[in-house]
Amino acid sequence: MKSILLVVTNVSHYESGLQTGLWLSEVTHIYHTAKQNAWEVTFASPKGGEVPIDPESLKPFVMDKITKEYNSSPNFNKELNQTASLEEIENEMFDCVYLAGGHATMYDFPHNALLQSIVRRHYESGKVVAAICHGVGGLLNVKLSNGKYLITGKKITGFDWFEESIARRKKEVPFNLEAAIKERDVIFDKAFIPMTSNVAIDGNLITGQNPFSSKEIARAIAKILKN
Length: 227
Known about the structure:
Blueprint: E1 3-7, H1 25-36, E2 40-45, H2 65-71, H3 74-80, E3 84-85, H4 86-89, E4 96-99, H5 105-108, H6 113-124, E5 128-132, E6 155-156, H7 161-166, H8 177-182, E7 187-188, E8 199-202, E9 205-208, H9 214-226
Parallel strand pairs: 1-2, 1-4, 2-3, 4-5, 5-9, 6-7
Antiparallel strand pairs: 8-9
Helix pairs in contact: 1-2, 1-9
């Protein structure tokens, strides 16, 4: 049986007070794929416990069928809101570590030393490391044992600055994610048309650009784990 760690945020608001949180579809599709393949799923967050959901991701015209089904599932919501803390799972090994997104992750992912350690250990062990949308920010400061940044020289994607304009969050976010990724000297790959699915694969590192990449990144992870 394969095992996957789904890392989600604990942050519920921007500095301005506006609500944010996990972008729900960025976890429902990988969760659905895991269950279809009988993988063991573990939810974890920096602090453990409840996970706030970005209200924007719950709008009827935003949620697809799978996300709507899980959003109304008591069992799924109970599991999602009983996350382990990173401290509780730091010594465990998984076949895949997946960093879910949502603008909230820009606050509690990038500078979390324990998350960096977990990602580094799994990546260097040849396990799959995946991140989607703003969750990619959790990879920014991960350094390998040789002192180099994990993402340097890698083909990688993430929520770009133009998409931030479309989302009307430029004035809310604490930093420009696209610019921060590019500072690491990466091969930044983005969709020709903003807000469309795009997944970048570089060895055992898989990244998705935006919420619309949720299905594709889940398929990419499944393909690698099955092989």
